[in-house]
């Protein structure tokens, strides 16, 4: 009976450790996918401004309609709601609040939040050409961030999964 | 009032939100940098005080700061000044509710054209009031069931031409008594007839009406002719040679037209060469003259083509 319990314990340790080893790369992958979705939403914003010449309010509504990621959808929908209320709060503040929500939900980190927040400072105020340049600048920045995450993911994903298995096995051996 | 309140900067909103204008007609709100807020109600001029009251004397008036103008403009443009670039060049934007906002500041000129306005120093918010039924008195001159007469509505400025044109379009589109509604297409170059906001007419222009908003008249008339197969085309303030050419295309296609013209009387029209040519060709079957003798939109006279001559039918 003692040995059976020991084996069960060892198996639990190995499975958990392996699971954690595979879970961490999955988190990184989700992060990359989220950043790609938010990048895509800024490309949509560019089209809304460039071709449809829609206002920010209408653009945000259209983007949240098209967004597949629930956090991106929520981000644009919340801002749309705020702007619709016309409660006198500046767009910059509304944008900042939206980005902070993403930060709070741990969808982005401090430096990514800072990059996206800066974009909100001039949103809506500039002429069309500058508005588009501003979006291009943001998208380029996001591309760099995504590239770094991808490199990290490729570099570390196998390491984490192997480490998970090995740590599990090591603990199991120690338990013997 | 409540409809436009949301477009004002916080400091203006705080002072205006307690104004009781029930039963009164708010017409205009004028904001000028470092000047008092002036409000026109029932054709009377009032000053807005810092305490949020209105009076005919300028006692402790609320003075507008550049920030008030900037914040108000941002709210009016829905945080999207870039989407109003074309309108800004013309010095006005149309906001939700169909209200027209005149804008002045420093014009930025590029290639002999106005590129935009900067340092905005004044806003004139003209409150839209649709006068439903104001065209009743002229409608029976225009209708020729099951169609209508090609009609020119003429008046000097500020006599209600556009308001009447809008109501004519609405009633022809919806139908009037025994008259069945027709497909109406409006070319609304300056967004004055339908007052479109984000593509939606803010004024009731009828259930069978299509609006081509912000499009130059000449292009618009030809686009509608090809695209929308209208029974009637409505266009405001014609006058140029190209306008007249497009009207001829409409008439040659067998489509009826109703348009308006700035002029005082038939003699005045004769000075407008291109429109005078149309009238001599009897392109219009009716000419309706309006004035403000007994208030805005007074029907002065209706002229008919009789044989080869124009005769007054009613005056």
Structure notes:
The complex is a heterodimer of chains A (176) and B (315). Chain A is an all-alpha fold. In chain A, 85% of the residues lie in helices and 0% in strands. In chain B, the strands form four sheets. Chain B has an eight-stranded mixed beta sheet, sandwiched between helices. A seven-stranded antiparallel beta sheet of chain B has the order 4-3-2-1-7-6-5. A two-stranded antiparallel ribbon of chain B has the order 8-9. The longest helix of chain B has 14 residues, at 161-174. Chain B is globular, with a radius of gyration of 21 Å. The model of chain B has no long low-confidence stretch (mean pLDDT 89). Chain A binds chain B through residues 49, 53-59, 83, 86, 88, 90-91, 123-128, 131, and chain B through 6-7, 9-10, 13, 71, 74-75, 77-83, 85, 116, 198.
**SSE run of chain B:** HHEEEEHHEEEHEEEHEEEEHEHEHHEEE
Low-confidence stretches of chain A: none
N-end to C-end Cα span of chain B: 38 Å
**Residue share in β-strands of chain A:** under 5%
Distance between the termini of chain A: 15 Å
What structural class do helix, strand and pairing data of chain A support? Answer: mainly alpha
- Biggest pleated-sheet summary of chain B: 8 strands, mixed
The domain count of chain A comes to 1
Assembly annotation = heterodimer
> What strand order characterises the main sheet of chain B?
14-11-15-16-10-17-18-19
Radius of gyration of chain B: 21 Å
Layout of secondary structure:
The complex is a heterodimer of chains A (176) and B (315).
Chain A: H1 2-50, H2 56-66, H3 70-85, H4 91-104, H5 110-121, H6 128-175
Chain B: H1 2-5, H2 10-16, E1 26-32, E2 38-41, E3 44-48, E4 54-55, H3 66-76, H4 85-90, E5 92-95, E6 99-110, E7 113-126, H5 136-142, E8 143-144, E9 147-148, E10 151-155, H6 161-174, E11 184-188, E12 196-197, E13 200-201, E14 209-213, H7 217-227, E15 232-235, H8 241-252, E16 256-262, H9 266-270, H10 273-280, E17 286-291, E18 298-306, E19 309-314
Parallel strand pairs in B: 10-16, 10-17, 11-14, 11-15, 15-16
Antiparallel strand pairs in B: 1-2, 1-7, 2-3, 3-4, 5-6, 6-7, 8-9, 12-13, 17-18, 18-19
């Amino acid at each position: 009976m003692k040995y059976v319990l020991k084996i069960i314990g060892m198996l639990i340790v190995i499975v958990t450790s392996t699971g954690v080893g595979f879970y961490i790369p999955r988190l990184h992958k989700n992060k990359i996918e989220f950043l790609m979705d938010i990048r895509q939403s800024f490309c949509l914003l560019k089209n809304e401004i460039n071709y449809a010449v829609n206002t920010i309010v209408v653009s945000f509504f259209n983007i949240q309609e098209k967004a597949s990621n629930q956090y991106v959808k929520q981000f644009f929908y919340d801002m749309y709601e705020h702007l619709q209320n016309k409660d006198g709060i500046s767009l910059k503040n509304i944008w900042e609040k939206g980005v902070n929500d993403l930060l709070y939900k741990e969808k982005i980190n401090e430096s990514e939040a800072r990059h996206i927040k800066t974009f909100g400072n001039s949103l809506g105020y500039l002429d069309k050409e500058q508005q588009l340049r501003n979006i291009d600048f943001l998208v380029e920045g996001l591309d760099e961030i995504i590239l770094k995450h991808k490199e990290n993911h490729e570099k570390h994903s196998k390491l984490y999964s192997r480490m998970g298995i090995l740590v599990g096995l090591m603990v199991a051996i120690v338990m013997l | 009032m409540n409809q436009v309140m949301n477009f004002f900067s916080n400091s203006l909103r705080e002072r205006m939100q307690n104004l009781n204008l029930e039963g009164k007609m708010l017409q205009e709100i004028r904001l000028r940098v470092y000047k008092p807020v002036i409000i026109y109600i029932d054709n009377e001029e009032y000053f807005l005080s810092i305490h949020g009251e209105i009076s005919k004397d300028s006692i402790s008036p609320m003075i507008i700061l550049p920030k008030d103008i900037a914040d108000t403009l941002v709210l009016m443009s829905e945080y999207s000044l870039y989407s109003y670039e074309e309108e800004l060049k013309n010095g006005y934007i149309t906001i939700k509710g169909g209200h027209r906002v005149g804008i002045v500041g420093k014009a930025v000129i590029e290639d002999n054209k106005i590129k935009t306005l900067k340092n905005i120093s004044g806003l004139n918010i003209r409150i839209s009031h649709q006068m439903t039924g104001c065209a009743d008195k002229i409608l029976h001159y225009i209708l020729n069931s099951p169609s209508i007469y090609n009609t020119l509505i003429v008046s000097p400025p500020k006599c209600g031409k556009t308001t009447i044109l809008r109501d004519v379009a609405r009633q022809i589109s919806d139908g009037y008594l025994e008259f069945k509604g027709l497909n109406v297409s409006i070319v609304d170059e300056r967004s004055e007839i339908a007052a479109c906001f984000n593509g939606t007419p803010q004024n009731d222009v009828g259930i069978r009406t299509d609006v081509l908003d912000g499009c130059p008249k000449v292009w618009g008339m030809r686009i509608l002719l090809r695209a929308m197969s209208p029974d009637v085309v409505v266009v405001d303030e014609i006058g140029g040679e190209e306008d007249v050419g497009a009207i001829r295309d409409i008439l040659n296609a067998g489509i009826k037209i109703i348009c308006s013209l700035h002029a005082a009387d038939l003699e005045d029209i004769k000075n407008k060469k291109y429109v005078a040519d149309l009238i001599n060709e009897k392109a219009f079957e009716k000419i309706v003259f309006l004035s403000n003798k007994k208030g805005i939109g007074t029907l002065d006279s209706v002229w008919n083509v009789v044989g080869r001559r124009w005769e007054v039918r009613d005056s």
